[in-house]
What we know:
Layout: H1 9-23, H2 26-42, H3 50-67, E1 78-79, H4 90-101, H5 106-113, H6 117-141, H7 148-155, E2 160-161, H8 163-175, H9 180-195, H10 202-213, H11 217-227, H12 246-258, H13 261-271
Antiparallel strand pairs: 1-2
Helix pairs in contact: 1-2, 1-3, 1-4, 2-3, 2-11, 3-5, 4-6, 5-6, 6-8, 6-9, 7-8, 8-9
Bound molecules: zinc ion.
Zinc ion binds near residues 147, 149, 150, 176 and 179.
Amino acid sequence: xxxxxxxxxxxxxxxxxxxxxxxxxxxxxxxxxxxxxxxxxxxxxxxxxxxxxxxxxxxxxxxxxxxxxxxxxxxxxxxxxxxxxxxxxxxxxxxxxxxxxxxxxxxxxxxxxxxxxxxxxxxxxxxxxxxxxxxxxxxxxxxxxxxxxxxxxxxxxxxxxxxxxxxxxxxxxxxxxxxxxxxxxxxxxxxxxxxxxxxxxxxxxxxxxxxxxxxxxxxxxxxxxxxxxxxxxxxxxxxxxxxxxxxxxxxxxxxxxxxxxxxxxxxxxxxxx
Length: 273
Ligand SMILES: [Zn+2]
């Protein structure tokens, strides 16, 4: 029989919360939550630190998304009647969660996401902008106030908005007398609405804990092995940078090809995070 450490309910709650708000898909979230809790219950330490708990939740939900072709830096298309968070990359969603919902500082977020504090701050800004833009664009896409420019951009993707459409709609709103109000509203309310989302309730936590007990030994062993060798402080192995979406590298390569040597150097420096 494998040793399975009992988990604190607060830790289970944190795992559910991070995973649900990063995965945005009940089926993916269910697997990632179970796998995270399996890994946490296998750790030797009597009590996992919060950064360890969050690191494992982050690693497992990214793993499940990656298995479905959604990499940490993939900006998915979002349905016009969808959830604004869905327009964010998984790493932006995780950063938004850690900074805005938990109020962690850049070095704590960096420890969870394997980023230097400076890169974590940069990602916080990017995630915030992406979220406000997504809220604005989705509101505009279903808005019935007549604006021909807005109509044209919103109609481009036939019910889906790419990151480019989201940006185009927001840029348009910034300079359109009819559409500007949506941008102002999103800028003032988006993050407040996000942080006010309810926490996992007691019955969800009980259900997840009960489910964990039923994981068979061979399945349990497979999940723990797959998680890899833990770092000394209990965090999962470092996130390999090549896990990024291949398209990300392609875009970087194209940009590098057409910019000056100076800009390439700047690009290399920012890549170093
Ligand atoms: Zn307009």
